[in-house]
Design goal:
The protein is an alpha/beta fold and 162 residues long. It contains 5 helices and 5 strands. The chain has a 5-stranded parallel β-sheet with strand order 3-2-1-4-5, with helices on both faces.
């Protein structure tokens, strides 16, 4: 079995994040691997918010919120959420790196794999939308097809027939 030195957990901060993170923390603890928790702010969401803020700003003089400030605040909020879920999942004691990216989620995860020389990716099969590639394809599906390292899929939900 390969010696995993760096494990990436893709955390979208949905209701399933705890399960994915528990698996990643357990693997990191048992192998002594360095853990990377990655969250990607979808560029599409920022673009939508930017358009909304622009419209609102047209109606109000000196509107106090800009898309740049919104992004900074959102990145800080996501980082704090990752740190909180890590603490809750029993991660303290493990070496952990928190990474917040902006862009297309599967592309940003692939970039992070390359940047940090990740050996294993842990992610759930469900995420924020709870859809499995119904419209444009899920992040998990795209990563399953393109991931250059082993990818551990954490099944979310009840196991029937046991």
């Amino acid at each position: 079995m390969k010696d995993y030195k760096r494990i990436l957990a893709a955390c979208d901060l949905s209701e399933y994040t705890d399960v994915v993170l528990a698996a990643a923390v357990g693997l990191a603890a048992s192998t002594g691997a360095e853990l990377f928790l990655v969250n990607v702010i979808n560029q599409r969401d920022l673009d939508s918010m930017g358009a909304a803020l622009e419209k609102i700003a047209q109606d109000y003089d000196n509107f106090p919120v800009s898309i740049a400030q919104y992004r900074v605040d959102l990145e800080a909020e996501r980082l704090q959420s990752l740190q909180d879920v890590f603490k809750k999942t029993g991660g303290p004691g493990s070496k952990c790196n928190f990474v917040i990216k902006v862009g297309i989620p599967f592309q940003q995860i692939l970039e992070t794999i390359a940047e940090h020389q990740i050996d294993l990716v842990v992610m759930g099969t469900k995420g924020r939308t709870n859809l499995s590639g119904v419209l444009l394809g899920s992040t998990a599906e795209k990563l399953f097809r393109r991931c250059p390292v082993p990818l551990l899929s954490v099944r979310i939900g009840e196991h029937k027939g046991r």
